[in-house]
Amino acid sequence: MSTSISPLAPKHVPDMPDVAGVRLATAQAGIRYANRTDVLLALFDAGTVAAGVFTRSKCPSAPVEWCRAHLKNKARALVVNSGNANAFTGKSGRAATKLTAEIAAKAAGCKPGEVFLASTGVIGEPLDAHKFAPVMAGLAGSARAGGFHDAAKAIMTTDTFPKVATATARIGKTAVTINGIAKGAGMIAPDMATMLSFVFTDAAIAAPALQAMLKNGVADTFNAVTIDGDTSTSDTLMMFATGRAEGCPRIVRASDPRLKDFRKALQKVLANLSEQVARDGEGARKLVEIVVEGAVSKASARRIAMSIANSPLVKTAIAGEDANWGRVVMAVGKAGEPADRDRLSIWFGGIRVAHKGARDPGYDEAAVSAEMKKPEIFLKVALGLGKGRDRVLTCDLTKEYVAINGDYRS
Amino acid sequence: MSTSISPLAPKHVPDMPDVAGVRLATAQAGIRYANRTDVLLALFDAGTVAAGVFTRSKCPSAPVEWCRAHLKNKARALVVNSGNANAFTGKSGRAATKLTAEIAAKAAGCKPGEVFLASTGVIGEPLDAHKFAPVMAGLAGSARAGGFHDAAKAIMTTDTFPKVATATARIGKTAVTINGIAKGAGMIAPDMATMLSFVFTDAAIAAPALQAMLKNGVADTFNAVTIDGDTSTSDTLMMFATGRAEGCPRIVRASDPRLKDFRKALQKVLANLSEQVARDGEGARKLVEIVVEGAVSKASARRIAMSIANSPLVKTAIAGEDANWGRVVMAVGKAGEPADRDRLSIWFGGIRVAHKGARDPGYDEAAVSAEMKKPEIFLKVALGLGKGRDRVLTCDLTKEYVAINGDYRS
After folding, report:
1. Is B334 close to A56, i.e. CB distance below 8 A?
2. Structurally, what CATH architecture does the domain formed by A287-406 represent?
3. Are B125 and A191 within 8 A, CB to CB?
4. Whole-complex ipTM
5. B67: closest CA of chain A, how far (Å)
6. Ranges assigned E (strand) in B172-320
7. Set B48, B194, B226, B398: catalytic member
8. Which fold has domain A22-277?
9. Where are the beta strands (DSSP E) in A145-286?
10. 10-residue block means of pLDDT along chain A (410 residues)?
């Protein structure tokens, strides 16, 4: 299995500032991997609130169920391990989750219900939570401000690069920080189906407002990214607000106009992290941006864009650098949304290849071929029916994807 | 591009009897392919009725629209070409369809509206219907009883073997014949997205009854097969009944008890042809049968089975001979249907690998591995919720699939 860094990895990795009220530590607990960190402990100052959005899977992992059940509690700690997803592990999975929270609560000096948990890695293998006991006190003792790059590394599974993003925003006269980390490769990781992301801020925002902003922010970022249409049992995006930015006014409602800049900065962090997930899709050689416009609604545009983004025929064509707009028509047609073949136009990389139900009269194969050789492919579909518009990100489907996912355990 | 015959091809190819009232001929019209037949003409005796089910695509091909519009007419001819799907070709596509019907009607001595049409091949390229003119009179002149094997060959695109099936049935005291031909490789063919199938019988059955039986028959056969979840713009299954079986009573209603044996035989032909389509999925090395039972309804079981069958992670795991039931759980979870992780059991090849939300205590890796090496994989999921049961067929997702679909035009 290739472990070389994706050619689509961001060229610039940002410096990550501290977030007041957040301390981090990583360790090697030996869950599955040798010679690398596989557990992250984040400690939060008293008063920290949490928000979270989770997988829509009907078979979620034990940690997802734990986080959902405790989301209204204050947050004092977050424990994330890689190597084992603790998913589909039955009663022993729930027991492992509880034990992990108890071990962390003891080390952090809080209640188990104030500890949030996420696990990523193999599904169906029992997680031996006792492995956390020997390292947890050391983690709590060594936790310090900063360390976001190390944190992003500790939660990786088949990711080829750690994913971090940061932004600052003003709330009133106070500058606050938003730091995020994520791991992919989304819903496509081999045994290791998990997309995890954690966002930390020192802003003082009440939990319901934080939850509302996070839920809203995810719609056009993480929920607008697909690798292969497969939905992880463990997808978790959590956000923690410590309120420790000095002088930050406490915001209670998401509709508070003072959140305008913060909301924008949060959106930027979420968009950045989710794009990195698409860039690190397994076997990906092309980042594909799909815009659908002229649909009857935004929701309709989303479904059509997702139908294109998840079509194996479209994805393999892009891997083959083939501007195969016939397959795009096919994917529009199968979406089940209103579409009129005779009004449909399609662009690859800004060049219109099909117009009003037929090949564009000015179609220039050479120009389109040049576009298709680029590492980033922009694909636009105009339906000509209404004002609905949406955008999703995906990657191509390569032989490496099949190799990674087919050869993994053999 | 490999053109070797699929290792999953049926070992036995049946002899195909004549169907009274049906005459066939094939020719080389040079639509796209050189040195092979690419056009099929079927002529039907007066009084022949037609039934058809077509793609659910919102962007269907011009021939699909033509057939739908004329389905209530009597059928005197069927023209099928390979090499060009005449899909997404706008007004010129509709004109090409009309011209083809006119050329065939002249040769057959009937009205254009009594000619049915299907095209398979590249999408978006204009179809030059004038190419049919020089060969059509010869086709009509040479049409003869029999020739079903040649007919199945003429409609192939990326299929690695021609697909035929036959059955006999009794209606009253009369023996009638049902012959079918099909081309795949279903919704996965490269530029050439088309699944076509044609069934011919000498039974005397009124069009509405024929239509009802065909629609009913397709639900658990062609509609229960998926290669990659991509839906062709051209999917066509048509059936023609000549009524020429000597002494055959004319049946008007689908509910007529005399159709019992015929219905069973038709089901057998449709199941056989659709299974051959799955066996010839592009790049396929494994035929995969998926049974879901214990769902809240048959429809729910179908959606869960399709979610498993279309999951790239499940399909690549099977290609890698990996009994990766964690991915099956993932696919159950993402289907959006009622499912309870703690009641879920999963079998590969008759061996239970997961039970009640966790790995089966008696899990034997060696025994399961031996099952996974077989060319036919049986995968069963029991949900433990109700009596809903369904079955679908698919194939694995291999590097060859990506190669065929990614490298095709490059």
Report:
1. yes
2. Roll (3.10)
3. no
4. 0.76
5. 18
6. 174-183, 196-201, 236-241, 287-295
7. B194
8. L-amino peptidase D-ALA esterase/amidase (3.60.70)
9. 163-171, 174-183, 196-201, 236-241
10. 75 93 95 91 95 84 92 95 85 93 97 95 85 95 96 90 93 93 61 69 91 86 75 80 93 93 92 86 89 96 92 90 88 87 91 89 90 95 96 89 66
